[in-house]
Amino acid sequence: MAEQENQEIGHKELAHKTLLQSDALYQYILETSVFPREHECMKELRQMTEKHPWGLMATPPDEGQLINMLVKLINAKKTMEIGVYTGYSLLSTALALPHDGKIFAIDINREYYELGLPMIEKAGVAHKIDFKEGYALPLLDELLLDENNKGAFDFVFVDADKDNYLNYHKRVIELVRVGGLIGYDNTLWSGAVAGPPDAPMLDYVKQFRSYVIEVNKYLAHDSRIEICQIPVGDGITLCRRII
């Protein structure tokens, strides 16, 4: 029982999804730069998700703002998202795409996606989303069977099972175009990547810590990409394909 209580407390402590040491500073960022510009449907989706038992999995609003800007900066038209949950980052992307833009969205749980779908529909962007329920690896392998899909995506956002990040990278690197971007979420993993393996940490943080460290090392030495690791949210690593 005590272990369960500690787990619940830990989730509450991490619910703000930021690596900033000052909660006041994070709140300042949100209230000054994020919330005033947050789309009304995104706000509604965020507030709904915050009440969900697994609300911790949601993309934080400042990261959603970053994704929206990145999609616009690279003039993306065709994107992919691996790991959707209720769809906050998905909606952020969809709002940034032109009317004829498309998102190939993958998640193992359609039920969570459908929680956010009314807000996505209300925003008028549901037509841009091609949602696929299932495991990402076989779906990615299926895409790769068609040569026309290679280099066809402008932007890929990955926020899914950390133990498969490396497997995802080995596939999506072929699907994103040269000059396109891949974003990997949670690459600073609550700061655990910089601490000793025996440091006190929540069970799920400890369970996937080694996988996050592994993919960080791999990305740092992958000559096919340029990278930038940003301490927004729980850490996001941007990879620009160069060859």
TrEMBL record:
<keyword id="KW-0489">Methyltransferase</keyword>
<keyword id="KW-0808">Transferase</keyword>
<keyword id="KW-0949">S-adenosyl-L-methionine</keyword>
<protein>
    <recommendedName>
        <fullName>Caffeoyl-CoA O-methyltransferase</fullName>
    </recommendedName>
</protein>
<dbReference type="GO" id="GO:0008757">
    <property type="term" value="F:S-adenosylmethionine-dependent methyltransferase activity"/>
</dbReference>
<comment type="function">
    <text>Methylates caffeoyl-CoA to feruloyl-CoA and 5-hydroxyferuloyl-CoA to sinapoyl-CoA. Plays a role in the synthesis of feruloylated polysaccharides. Involved in the reinforcement of the plant cell wall. Also involved in the responding to wounding or pathogen challenge by the increased formation of cell wall-bound ferulic acid polymers.</text>
</comment>
<dbReference type="GO" id="GO:0032259">
    <property type="term" value="P:methylation"/>
</dbReference>
<keyword id="KW-0479">Metal-binding</keyword>
<dbReference type="GO" id="GO:0046872">
    <property type="term" value="F:metal ion binding"/>
</dbReference>
<dbReference type="InterPro" id="IPR002935">
    <property type="entry name" value="SAM_O-MeTrfase"/>
</dbReference>
<dbReference type="InterPro" id="IPR029063">
    <property type="entry name" value="SAM-dependent_MTases_sf"/>
</dbReference>
<comment type="similarity">
    <text>Belongs to the class I-like SAM-binding methyltransferase superfamily. Cation-dependent O-methyltransferase family.</text>
</comment>
<dbReference type="Pfam" id="PF01596">
    <property type="entry name" value="Methyltransf_3"/>
</dbReference>
<dbReference type="GO" id="GO:0008171">
    <property type="term" value="F:O-methyltransferase activity"/>
</dbReference>
<dbReference type="InterPro" id="IPR050362">
    <property type="entry name" value="Cation-dep_OMT"/>
</dbReference>
